[in-house]
User: Fold this.
Amino acid sequence: MLTYIKNRKKLVILVHEIYGINQHIHTFAQLLEKLGADVICPNLLPTNEPFNELQGEEAYHYFMEQVGFEKGSATINKIINQVHKRYDEIYLVGFSVGATIAWLCSTQNAFLKRTICFYGSRIRDYYQLNPQCPVTLFLSSIEKSFNVHDFVAKLSERKYDNVDIQLFKAKHGFANSYSRSFNKCAYHETLTQIESMIQK
Assistant:
């Protein structure tokens, strides 16, 4: 587990993608900590060694076989329930499969102040669920595995009261500065918004 704990009033729980706690997650956790929040990033994978970006297919199958969305969301919900009395506000930030886990938690846990999801393509399997807190979806317009515009249309048809959908002209992974898909403009736009949300 990766943690930055200084007994602050706000907590961000960071949910990693299929690769585990890699350099991208370490860097993002440090950015969140600089915003004035405690940070917890549990390792959802049975292994301590993260996968690298070239192992995408292997990492995905490993995650689905060893963790999955239901088990992953149960783990995050357990942490939220254990720590919520120590914080005034709890935020959830997830990347890719971590974003889908974060979405599930937002529909199951009443202790969250806000949930922020990067990519989260598999949210399309759970879009009929209703979040209990405000949710911001940072989506990439270029996705290999599904039609993101159809997904956005389905989300829009639901007319959620508390879901903000933002589509960036970028590839899946645009907020990972270590990825070949990194998009500097989209990355900084999302960081500006996260800073505003957490420091508001």
